[in-house]
Amino acid sequence: MADALHTLSAAELGRRLAAGSLTSRALCEALIARFDAVNEKVGAFTHLDRADVLAQADASDARRQAGQGRGPLEGIPVAIKDNIAVQGQPLTCSSKMLASLVSPYDSHVADRLRAAGAILYGRLNMDEFAMGSSTENSAVRKTFNPWDLTRIPGGSSGGSAAALAAGLVPLSLGSDTGGSIRQPASHCGVVGLKPTYGLISRFGLVAFASSLDQIGPMARSIEDCELLLAALASADARDMTCFGPDERALTSAGEAKKLRIGIPKGFLGKGVAPEVAAAVEAAIAFYRAQGCTVSEVELPSADLAVPTYYVVATAEASSNLGRYDGVRYGHRSAQAATPVEMMTHSRSEGFGAEVKRRILLGTFVLSAGYADAYYNRALRARAKIRAEYLAALSQVDVLLTPTVPTPAFKVGEKASDPLQLYLEDIFTIPANLAGLPALSVPCGQSGHLPVGFHLVGAPLSEAKLLAAGRLFEAAHGFAHQQAAL
Amino acid sequence: MAEGFDIDHLAKLARLSLTAEEKALYSSQLNSILGHFQALAQADLPATIDDARVVRESALRSDVPGPSLGAAAVTRIAPAARDGQISVPRVVDDEA
After folding, report:
1. Hey, is the C-beta of A386 within 8 angstroms of any chain B C-beta?
2. Which of A408, A478, B19, B78 could share a disulfide with A187, CB 3.0–4.6 Å?
3. What is the ipTM of this complex?
4. Is residue A55 part of a domain?
5. A241–chain B Cβ distance below 8 A for any pair
């Protein structure tokens, strides 16, 4: 019985906990045993404080015993990407820069999870400062795709996706600046949601590109993803962009079988692997057979999305990462006699190659003489892309594409060509540029590797996306899937 | 489009010290990435930005003191601290 706990959904675990047939301690002990058996192989977690987890579990069991359970997440472990602050736990962003940092405070989402009775369970590996699509940029360790340990899990929330696919935890949090929740979800065969910009507070999320960053839920089923989303969305004055929970996002789904689905012209063509295209076309055929309307839509500026994103994101990153100067927290070089030397040496020693590359690029596109040609043009392109997406979404309810053009690639395969790696995000980036909600749903396999499709909706249409995902999931066998390890 | 790209100047602005190998590698990679950005230079774009990600004025909180971490928590995570304050290399010379 205990051996099977790692295969169960959060919803089912919640039911057993509520019925008294399971305790949070027994669940956490089973997951710790699973951690000891497979984490070394997969590398999803970078830190797990067993004593703290069991203390949280005992407190949860005591609350439940006293009739003070806090809801459906009471006693359920949620693992957290290592760029989201949890008081007393490491907050390294998988960077040497923050290798010894222990967070002195809780993020808003950590507050929310504690208020929901969830167990804050360990720290998940990621690309350094969330910059990457393979988790190979982690300064801590590599994470491997549980479906094929020679391949990448995606990124930057690679640990969050791999932990789910390996049965290490039932729920996880990721962050998504250009696809960092959805791309690893697709590669690992799990569900990942990037909410509407502003739905979930980023207070306590280490900033990468503030006009794009969102925290979001990841799970092995749509139902679990919904459970976690409901716990996270709440107003927070500490993030000025957060407008808090909105009933439209959480409940007004409408009938999934009546959805109008738009297929962006050309998105299933060039660069998409045949088996990915086939899986996504089968999903489209499924929706059509269910009674949904399927039509082609035009997004003429789609080709501008990747360059626009890499100008805006690196510009904001170069500014946000200016705070790592060796003064207040993080790495300080021992080789420094003056303040400027301290800053320069600390940054040079603390940041990895991809972070330096993006800081340099962002510094360039903002620099005197170039800001008009790059940054300001990118802002205008972003406005155009957003307008085109909103126009398309006034004609249809959701846009459906592959999440990623190709299945997970081999570790090291694209490490020397950053531009090729940036193109991994071609389908996911526009939702960040336009602030729209987007969901990756497992829809098939290419050989033994998972494939996902991607739904984008109008602002606050999360419930609609999840309803569409649920319709597909109910008719196919991809929910709750885990890799054999 | 990357005319005038000066890796030394850029590194100085970004407060990064790069080895000769890093300079060569980043120069080549950034030139290749900037080449991909050509599409932006050639695109027909709106003259003004109607960007809906503006922060609502009502979202700004009052400018009054609120709870904060406190000196002990802040100095605990600082690379170097003394007498409840963060210490750094000397900023101002005695003669200055």
Report:
1. yes
2. A408
3. 0.91
4. yes
5. yes
